[in-house]
Amino acid sequence: MTKYEQLARQLQGQIAAGAWQPGDRLPSLRESARRADISLMTVLSAYQLLESEGWIRSRPQSGYFVAEPLASPIEHSPSLLQPAETVDINAVIFKLLQAGDDPACVALGSAFPDPSLFPRQQLARSLGRVARQLHSQGTGVSLPPGRIELRRAIARRYAARGMRVSPDEIVITSGALEALNLGLQSLTVPGDWVVVESPAFYGALQALERHRLKAVAVATDPQKGMDPDALAEALERYPVKACWLMSHCQNPLGGTLPAARKQRLLALLARHDVALIEDDVYGELYAGDEPPLPIKAWDEEGRVLHCASFSKTLGSGMRIGWVAAGRQAEAVQRLQLMSTLSASAPMQLALADYLSGHHYDKHLHTLRRTLAQRKQRFCRAVQRAFPPSARLHGAEGGYFLWIELPAPVCTTRLYWRALAEGITIAPGRMFATDDRYRHCLRLNTSLPWNARSDAAIRRLAELIGEQLA
Amino acid sequence: MTKYEQLARQLQGQIAAGAWQPGDRLPSLRESARRADISLMTVLSAYQLLESEGWIRSRPQSGYFVAEPLASPIEHSPSLLQPAETVDINAVIFKLLQAGDDPACVALGSAFPDPSLFPRQQLARSLGRVARQLHSQGTGVSLPPGRIELRRAIARRYAARGMRVSPDEIVITSGALEALNLGLQSLTVPGDWVVVESPAFYGALQALERHRLKAVAVATDPQKGMDPDALAEALERYPVKACWLMSHCQNPLGGTLPAARKQRLLALLARHDVALIEDDVYGELYAGDEPPLPIKAWDEEGRVLHCASFSKTLGSGMRIGWVAAGRQAEAVQRLQLMSTLSASAPMQLALADYLSGHHYDKHLHTLRRTLAQRKQRFCRAVQRAFPPSARLHGAEGGYFLWIELPAPVCTTRLYWRALAEGITIAPGRMFATDDRYRHCLRLNTSLPWNARSDAAIRRLAELIGEQLA
């Protein structure tokens, strides 16, 4: 080892041991050289090496600082496993979801799109046709991987985007949440490490906890999704078995991975032989005219489990999702056979019938336009009413708006205050295993814009103002 | 302690330590008395005490023998956890279930009733009505505990039997299998002990394995179900958290717990504060005219999680079940919220619509009569064709027949041989974590009796004959 490498390793050891904390300024080049009695160039080389490895960052005119770790291990922190804490978060989630069902509530915290946006009439026709077929055919028992009619219809939709996904690797599930859970179980045993986003969909955090997995939360950009450098670091440092991320309209941030980033993330996972659970339930709600390709499109090894559903586009109550599970297709089926057996056969057939017509793409086109208009309305209203320091993310695609408020605001407190007045929000606390997003919240912008939603936004702004006062 | 008690405890210690194995003959009274230099009566008293406690058994003219333990711990034996073994059993189960879907197969191994027995026309009408309502109402999001319409309809059926079950403790699930899994998860953490039947429904064994629980397999009588003495022993010896059993038409034996035994089992569980998962999916298929009460009927503490479904009476493909979960109702809902969210809303509404009419009880009456007739037919054919030493169990209620063949027969071999000829059976190997039922098989007698089923029974008898030759 050369002298500069020795110095670098020594400093790295000190950082890892906590002697230098993230944000600390390192001694200047000159000072270090004097102390260690080595040349300025040697110190500079050491610092540059550490910078290239991500341990420190230089700031022009200011010197070198210890970097924030891009990947922070969660490893079942007390806040994740402490029963009281867990129950508390589940209670918030439970209330949020129930409020979405309560017509008296302005459900800005809901994860579901406004149900009036669903094509009920056409779905009813399909369900009616299935009902009439029941006379003669019966439903029999429905087994994994699910009805071939529906698997073929889904495979055709992949094909229309130029992707080769065989009906044989598709497993129909009771909503995408089951697909995600079964995929995760098929890839891991308790104690394994899994990469998740930060902030992450709470369903992912709950699944990790339930299956006793260890999580590495990886920095995720509000616009561009998971940071490849952070993922690389996580894969270097931890024996990761699976990575769970959302490629489009990420929940809660709203961001979408650019195509180049998708490929880079997949290449990193391939290099470390790690499977990807691609949660793509918002994939059809993209912004603009061009449908983005899922990461699965670049997967030639069966490494990606692409999970999606009809819950965000046709109706949340049907509970039909799927996973294009690649190499895991059989493992997922066996796990399903032991848990729910299969999804409802008449519902599968009704969806296959609906997809066989040409309504779906037309419906999606209208849905995307409506969601974009409603989101614009909400954005303008929030910008008008909220403090100017509030930062808005997720303005493009999907129906979530992620809002960063000034640090003193606690959105968990805001949640309880608003709930008492018939308004729900999704507090930042739901999307991490610690308090780092306590000043953030997620709003559902799929609701129709009217006097009630207008009043709700204004009232939220007032409650935030009270906290800041 | 008196002298005889001392001797008894000494012998018990030796048995527990393995010095005496099950089946070993203990020294005669006379010999023991001589060795220990105590009176014959003291030895006799000691032996009688041990016999009353179940440690030893007397055989007339032969002396005293160490008893087979009634409750045998499984504690994740290698055969349960060894991946190859697990995969093998899952492969058998998977093939069996798929063959049930294959019209070219005589699916005597299937767990599902003949689908032609389902009231398709009336269900189709209900589904059609729900489809028409979709126009105006939509399905919205379906959340735990499930649609109130269906929970009320189920609660009314309990009430009709004189049971008090509130809609509030009922959680609608994706079939009973999900109810059983969620119930088990709500009661245990990995490493906990759970009592199961021997032989047991394979779904229970798989669930224990998946949740990394330890199992005590408790002796179960083919006619009268779980042995209360064996349960008592299991509860004394192991820190049991939950007991999972089938009260009616047990799978695979076919037996039903008499009312007195139900109460005794519940009292034992209450004394040890252990929860009961009552798997009652065959409860409506009872023999005779009087509907038996589930154990839940005697439960005044919310200790029993009564799990059932419509899969065996109305259609296996709908995937609608429920649990009347007592004290666990909220815990079960939260677990469901993290896994499948909820069962399909249109299917729930269709079933609620169907139950609101008066067809169900009439249908069940006919179904029970048809199943009883078909079972009789099958029994006669099996008795005629199989070797005279074959013992038949489960002749009353449900649609399973459990057959004990002479010890040399291996039903796993029989399974593979028969499958090659388009006939499935359920081999004994599926219902335990070891080989103790390798000479047993389960037949589904719900199939229509015709030339094909007749030929299949004869062919099975021939294949058994080949193994015995």
Characterization of the model:
The structure is a homodimer of 469-residue chains. Chain A is α/β, with parallel strands linked by helices. Chain A folds into three domains: 3-68, Winged helix-like DNA-binding domain superfamily/Winged helix DNA-binding domain (Arc Repressor Mutant, subunit A), CATH 1.10.10.10; 82-116 and 362-468, Aspartate Aminotransferase, domain 1 (Alpha-Beta Complex); 119-358, Aspartate Aminotransferase, domain 2 (3-Layer(aba) Sandwich), CATH 3.40.640.10. Chain A is 45% helix and 15% strand. Chain A contains 16 helices and 17 strands. Chain A has helices spanning 3-16, 29-36, 40-52, 78-81, 83-99, 120-137, 148-160, 175-187, 202-210, 228-237, 259-271, 329-339, 345-356, 359-385, 411-420, 451-468, and strands at residues 56-59, 63-66, 71-73, 106-107, 170-173, 193-198, 214-221, 225-226, 240-246, 275-279, 304-309, 321-324, 391-393, 400-404, 423-424, 426-427, 440-444. In chain A, the strands form four sheets. In chain A, strands 3, 5, 6, 7, 8, 9, 10, 11 and 12 form a nine-stranded mixed sheet that branches. In chain A, strands 13-14-17-16 form a four-stranded antiparallel sheet. Chain A has a two-stranded antiparallel ribbon with strand order 1-2. In chain A, a hairpin with a 3-residue loop joins strand 7 (214-221) and strand 8. In chain A, helix 14 (359-385) packs across helix 16. The longest helix of chain A has 27 residues, at 359-385. The radius of gyration of chain A is 24 Å and the shape is globular. Chain A starts with a helix and ends with a helix. Residues 73-87 of chain A have low confidence and may be disordered. Chains A, B: Pfam families: Aminotran_1_2, GntR. Chains A, B: Residues 1-69 form the HTH gntR-type domain. Chains A, B: In the C-terminal section; belongs to the class-I pyridoxal-phosphate-dependent aminotransferase family.
